[in-house]
């Protein structure tokens, strides 16, 4: 555990674990390879690169930045050595923001080499391949790792900490996949179901944030033993962590709901235009015999 100076300031460090760069670099390299391959294939056919445009690249890049912020920036050291609230920021980045952005950067064309495997996995899961499973997995993992014994074990043991981080990211993918669907699912969310889906998930986790924000007792012994910095005692630090969780869940919910409303309006307008085109074709067919006579 890193010490702090007499003024109560933390020892700030970047890249506390250099080994984390290897999997991140491999992941980014695979994405760039597939992204460029899809664009080359589209150019060879004289078509626009569907699913491999600037928006996908921007979303994936932002997702990688979220992962770097969580694992490479001082947030990692602050959460491990000093503050529960910094650890909470790390969890929000790993379990919510990074998976959302990275999935937005994917598409069916980019994931084509893995599409059949994913479909076989979905068939094998049977009734479990359901959007409700995504919420259940996400909430179960988030609540499980906030049990004080497990939370402290992750802070004290490097392997458990790695397992915690990996499970947070996997849970985030499970949550956001049914909404984004880089590869379409057989059981899809339709109508107003996407709004209910994300509202249920965010409300479910915001309840934990509310509890932490208003708790008057320090729940995590590990953070009672860490050096105190910035004038925060363990309970205040824990309360701030709960507020961070609540604010992030609320902010993400609002953004996603706005995006879903915009998408619904766009789809409605497209369906209206399609209906108008069909009606025009039918009218043209009806006029043709009359004009021939």
Summarize the structure in words.
It is a single chain. The chain is mainly α and 293 residues long. It has one domain. The protein is built from 11 helices and no strands. It starts with 20 loop residues before the first helix and ends with a helix. The relative contact order is 0.10.
Topology:
Blueprint: H1 21-45, H2 54-71, H3 74-81, H4 84-104, H5 112-125, H6 131-145, H7 148-156, H8 158-180, H9 193-214, H10 221-225, H11 234-292
Helix pairs in contact: 2-4, 3-4, 4-8, 4-11, 6-8, 6-9, 7-8, 9-11
Core attributes:
single chain, 293 residues, mainly alpha, 11 helices, elongated, disordered N terminus
The biggest beta sheet, please? none
DSSP strand count: 0
Mean pLDDT: 86
Q: What is the N-to-C order of secondary-structure elements (H for helix, E for strand)?
A: HHHHHHHHHHH
Number of helices: 11
SS-derived structural category: mainly alpha
**Fraction of helical residues:** over 70%
Measured distance between first and last alpha carbons: 93 Å
Number of domains: 1
Based on CA inertia axes, which overall geometry fits? elongated
Approximate strand percentage: under 5%
What integer value in Å does the Rg equal?
24 Å
* Poorly predicted regions: 1-7
